[in-house]
Design a protein that fits this description.
Elements (H helix, E strand, L loop, with lengths): L1 H10 L16 E5 L45 E5 L14 E8 L9 E8 L8 E11 L6 E9 L1 H4 L4 E8 L8 E2 L7 E2 L19 E9 L6 E7 L2 E8 L13 E10 L23 E9 L5 E3 L6 E4 L5 E6 L6 E6 L14
This protein binds 2-acetamido-2-deoxy-beta-D-glucopyranose (3 copies).
């Protein structure tokens, strides 16, 4: 119960750095909402902009921004686009030696219209040529043509040019071969909110080592587009969406919803980075990486607690841990994950 109170208190404080104080950490430009990068995608030239989501699966959602202090966002009619000068498409690294500590719905059984979870946001120490992330994924399609959207937080020095933890997403329509990218590094994601944007940094530092945020990826029940929704201060914010047209299989819904942590190391010989908070799930207190209220959206657009008897677990190294359990109270389905990483030898990938 005490930990649930902590969760409520933390979710009440804004996770993002106040843009007034950030000294260029979150530099962004405000672009005309109709002239944002997405519209140069060849399949989106005639795309009709959708400004409000239809996501009945997220009840209680108040999408009004009138009660938000929007001094630091963009003026009406424009949207913020992350303008960190370090970002360059050649830094769009989504490869390397990857590790996972995840749970997922069993593939190929059912159609899902999204997933959501509350997650701890941390700032693990990640060096160049490494990344550490925690995500919700929605996926569909055969391995060779996998359609995937993943969103959550990431520390990714090669992508961002710094060590901040940032709201980060990735999409592909062909298993990362020729389509897709992080954030807005290629045309695809349509930004709608005027102040929360992909690439934005979280307010995490030594005094404030953890935040809590809800991340949801939901298919719109009218247009079929896939929305990214974040929750902070009890306010649910549809950040923007991936139009269904940029996908093939995901157009018809997802067959896998996945939750958890992942790390990448882009040079084989480097030590593997920490995942989650850098602590193993067995460690006491709220220092471990975690997800609570793990839920998915079923084919009738109902938001349902994950069924713990049916979820697949993936943990591929002793350098990280994973504990999936049904917690009491409002946390419902929950998991702890993460660990310190280590040498390539110690972190040798376990057989599935
Ligand atoms: C979609 O969801 C809205 C609520 O956001 C609901 O009113 C509407 O009936 C739903 N439409 C369809 C086609 O399911
Ligand atoms: C990341 O943090 C380390 C110290 O932990 C520092 O040495 C390094 O320069 C930082 N990297 C970047 C890209 O800011
Ligand atoms: C979705 O969940 C609701 C509520 O539990 C249930 O009534 C409905 O039958 C489910 N739909 C599907 C397709 O499983």
């Amino acid at each position: 119960m005490a930990s649930y109170l902590l969760l409520v208190i933390l979710i009440h404080s804004s996770p993002f750095l106040s843009q007034a104080k950030q000294n260029g950490i979150d530099s962004f430009k405000c672009v005309n909402i109709y002239q944002q990068p997405a519209f140069s995608h060849r399949k989106l030239r005639h795309h009709k902009l959708q400004t409000k989501p239809n996501i009945p699966q997220f009840p209680g959602a108040t999408f009004s921004r009138s009660d938000v202090n929007n001094d630091h966002g963009c003026p009406k009619g424009t949207v913020p686009i992350h303008a960190n000068p370090s970002i360059h498409p050649q830094n769009d690294i989504n490869s390397g030696v990857k590790y996972f500590a995840t749970i997922s719905t069993p593939p190929g059984e059912k159609t899902y219209r999204g997933g959501a979870a509350i997650m701890g946001v941390f700032n693990p120490v990640v060096k160049q040529m490494q990344s550490s992330r925690a995500n919700v994924w929605v996926q569909n399609g055969p391995t060779s043509d996998l359609n995937s959207i993943e969103a959550g937080w990431a520390v990714h020095p090669n992508l961002y040019g710094d060590n901040y933890t940032r709201l980060t997403a990735y999409w592909t329509a062909d298993d990362f071969r020729t389509t897709g990218c992080y954030n807005l590094l290629c045309p695809g994601f349509v930004q709608i909110d005027t102040s929360v944007f992909l690439g934005q940094a979280y307010l995490i530092n030594l005094d404030h080592p953890m935040m809590i945020e809800q991340i949801g990826i939901f298919q719109d029940n009218v247009t079929g587009n896939w929305w990214l929704v974040t929750q902070m201060n009890y306010l649910i914010i549809p950040v923007g969406y991936w139009p269904k047209k940029i996908f093939t299989y995901l157009t018809l819904g997802a067959d896998v919803v996945k939750y958890g942590g992942t790390t990448s190391t882009y040079l084989q010989q480097l030590d593997r980075p920490p995942m989650g908070s850098g602590k193993y799930p067995g460690d006491l207190g709220w220092v471990f990486g975690f997800f609570t209220r793990i839920r998915y959206v079923n084919d009738s657009y109902n938001l349902i607690d994950a069924d713990h008897r049916k979820m697949n677990k993936v943990l591929d190294s002793v350098c990280y841990g994973l504990m999936y359990f049904t917690a009491g109270g409002a946390m419902k389905e929950a998991m702890k994950f993460g660990g310190p990483g280590g040498t390539p030898d110690r972190c040798k990938q376990l057989p599935p």
